[in-house]
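Entry 14: structure prediction run for HAD-IA family hydrolase. Input pasted below.
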Amino acid sequence: MKSGRAKDVTIKAVLFDFDGTLADTLPLSFLAFQSVFRQYDRRELSTEELVARFGPTEDGIIRGHLNNQEQVEEAIRMYYRLYGEGHSQHVHAVPAIHEMLDELRAANLKLGIITGKSREAFQISAEALQLSPYFDVVVTGDDVVSPKPHPEGLLRALAKLGVRPEEAVFIGDSSADIAAGQAAEVRTFGAHWLPTHQSSIFAVAPERVFTDVESFVQLILAQGDGAPHRWLDWAKQLQAIAQTGLTYVKDVYDRERYEALREISVEIMEQYTLAGEDVIRMAFANETGYATPKVDVRGVVFQNNHILLVREKADGAWALPGGWADIGYSPSEIAVKEVREEAGFEVEAVKLLAVLDKKFHDHPPSPYHVYKLFILCRIVGGSALGGVETSEVGFFAEDDLPPLSVERNTEKQLHLMFEYLRNLDKGVLLD
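Run finished. Output tokens:
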């Protein structure tokens, strides 16, 4: 890391190692590796010997160190079977980790993972611990040529997020993590907050070692990029209080106070959103009664492993067909209606996939508090045809997505939808 670099640069992204930092999976990894080498090589490996072999993916470790090469593929399959089956007994979610990630997401920080695990092993753990929805980018050992301590994984994550090294921090539990972070010129911290970690003493000194997640969160939020969004949240709450108060108020002086409160909320929102004052005032004038979140419904349609998107006339970018929920329609009816009107297809609703709070995702600031419902639909008729608000209709592969209308959906959200294509039994995502 460059010496003397200022530490008051606004933090925009937080990058994590996985094993030993976000998930206490190391004991299970040790157990699975030891079982494999015992079964196929008739030899015992200590945890220290295994840690010394870490760097490559699980497949790479077994291929590189198993003497019984004739059965190496069988040994790899055994590892993943043991690793997957062992989560229910040996790996449990850590509430403090989820609370930390919730706070960082609420502060509108971008989150990423750089792990030496294979993509398959990471997905097993991330789904078991319900960690996938939090992250904007995940770089696994399968995605790099040079694993940690080389900085390739971190540099890939930074490029994907569009963040400069000085705008990010990285935290991990091993000496390789610290070396990789410093080589990427990212502020780098050590994590000793889970029961098991790779390095009790770091070969190179991190900026600081954290033994509890609360202290780490405090440091990040104090230097994070979330202050404008916290102001926006407060403005929305003021607007909700004012709107509800104006609905039930009887005293003329209290009415004046609630109207003044609404004026304050309008001024704050004008500062922190792209909407002008007139647009905000008109939107609020149409909102009466007890204040509640607005509901946006998106239809998720797959065909030949491609996802249906429509091109919005408003901004020329692409989105899942959908829009505000209309009075008198159920959520599934809205999804069916929006797909028909915006894409031309007749569909039937199959399953609710996700209910997401827009403020926890990387959308542009908005005056509204919005819940987004994603509903899986199946084509039963019709053909591709744009509508009043859409100019084009297309199906896209996960690795070939067009420019997205981020006001409506983010790239991360589309990747989450593809996870359901791979695993239809996956539970509903919340928040």
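Notes: The CA atoms of residues 345 and 383 lie 5 Å apart. Will compare against the previous run tomorrow.
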